[in-house]
Design goal:
- With 424 residues, the chain is mainly alpha-helical.
- It has one domain: Growth Hormone, Chain: A, CATH 1.20.1250.
- The protein contains 20 helices and no strands.
- Helix 4 packs antiparallel against helix 16, helix 11 packs parallel to helix 16 and helix 13 packs antiparallel against helix 14.
- The longest helix is centred in the middle third of the chain and has 32 residues.
- The radius of gyration is 22 Å and the shape is globular.
């Protein structure tokens, strides 16, 4: 099958755009708390507004793709993201922030559902694994870049006589809210993506029975399955862990160690996403020699240890240990997702939609962390939530019973077979 290069590039750029827009909440978290004069618990509802959209839209987005095809859904997704970003940039208030983040999150959920089948068809089934890994690397690269761009924009606008892009932003962004410059940038990115998508002819995607989202009756049947519920919670626990840590880094370093959230905080968040991406390479290697459940248990323990060092160590230790948490989170999403799909014999498309709905867990963690921190006056106590979610992920390594285990290289057996052949 011939590769549709333009469509593959579109999908890869879309992955980059999704991540660039999604992962800015962590670095700007201290500014949101300060500028809106809100508690951590209330601030936690901002990421909740974003991730709640995943819970609401993941399954309906699949149905929209089934009915109208990928291109209209992609266009609608970026229209919603553009409106959400620009309206918030024009009218910065707490309620508008929540509405804006819900709109952007809805768009991102729709994109996530539409682009994976499109990548499989555009690149060819035989290249799907390669392009999927490449897409994840771009996703990680954008998450790493986003906090650095934020830091550069805010510092550039703070110059005595800003020029070029910085001068333009100074004219449209309130002086006391320089972080809003990122939302103008998101609006521009979304408009550029709309033009890009409109100009490209996308291939027809024929979903297999396995990939099809299925009727509502199938979802009702699946939600009565204990395994489905347990893995749904597993995905929610993972995204809650990822976002709970990412959103806490900057504000933790500022409150406990007096480190500047704009420079040290943003760089540490960037390193968190960088190591989360790089950790995938070690994870891929380990999955070739170890059972995925073993890998999940080892990485869960590593994440718990790193989080402990970050929360209770010195400032320099925290700056190093928070990114290490990201490193150990790197394989969890893919391992939990694959264990889940391999634990059911059918309806994988519908099950995947349910699992993606579990992304709402990313929003639930932050308000709970914030509430506990506000009640006790200690963010470390709030982070107990992350220990609980990591403990649940660790437990998956024990109770998961996949019908198909990941294929590993058995070096010892291979050597024995080679020796037998030589002896023969």
């Amino acid at each position: 099958m011939k590769t549709n290069v333009a469509a593959v590039i579109l999908v890869l750029v879309t992955f980059f755009a999704i991540s660039f827009i999604t992962n800015i909440i962590g670095p700007i978290f201290p500014s949101l708390v300060k500028d809106f004069n809100i508690s951590l618990a209330v601030a936690g509802f901002l990421p909740f507004s974003f991730f709640a959209a995943y819970g609401v839209m993941s399954i309906p987005a699949g149905l929209l793709v089934d009915k109208y095809s990928e291109k209209p859904v992609l266009l609608l997704a970026f229209v919603m993201a553009a409106i959400g970003a620009i309206v918030f940039a024009l009218v910065p208030s707490l309620l508008m922030a929540m509405a804006s983040l819900f709109l952007i999150g809805t768009g991102m959920a729709m994109l996530q559902v539409a682009i994976n089948p499109l990548l499989r068809v555009s690149g060819g089934k035989e290249h799907f694994a390669f392009y999927s890994v490449l897409a994840q690397l771009l996703f990680g690269a954008a998450a790493t870049l986003s906090p650095l761009v934020y830091s550069a924009l805010v510092q550039g606008m703070a110059q005595q006589s800003p020029t070029g892009l910085y001068a333009m932003l100074v004219n449209v962004v309130p002086q006391n809210m320089p972080w809003l410059s990122m939302y103008w940038l998101f609006g521009v990115v979304s408009v550029v993506m709309l033009i890009f998508i409109s100009a490209i002819k996308l291939p027809k995607v024929m979903l297999t029975e396995e990939e099809s989202v299925g009727a509502w009756s199938i979802y009702k049947q699946l939600f009565q399955n204990k395994t489905v519920i347990l893995f749904f919670i597993g995905i929610a626990a993972y995204v809650g862990t990822e976002q709970g840590v990412a959103n806490a880094i900057s504000i933790f370093l500022e409150r406990y160690h007096g480190l500047d959230p704009l420079t040290v905080g943003a760089n540490t968040v960037s390193n968190f996403w960088l190591l989360l991406t790089l950790g995938c390479f070690l994870g891929l290697a380990l999955l070739k020699i170890l059972d995925s459940k073993t890998v999940l248990k080892l990485f869960s323990l590593g994440a718990i240890l790193s989080l402990t060092l970050a929360l209770f160590g010195s400032a320099s230790m925290a700056v190093m240990a928070f990114p290490l948490v990201g490193f150990f989170l790197s394989v969890m999403w893919s391992v939990i997702f694959s264990l889940a799909l391999n634990s059911l014999a059918e309806h994988h498309g519908s099950f995947a939609g349910i699992l993606c709905t579990g992304i709402v867990g990313g929003g639930l963690a932050s308000p709970i962390i914030g509430l506990l921190a506000d009640l006790t006056g200690d963010l470390r106590i709030g982070m107990i939530v992350v220990y609980i979610t990591l403990a649940y992920i660790f437990a998956i390594g024990f109770w998961a019973k996949p019908l198909v285990a990941n294929k590993t290289i058995k070096l010892f057996n291979k050597n024995n077979e080679s020796n037998s052949q030589i002896a023969g």
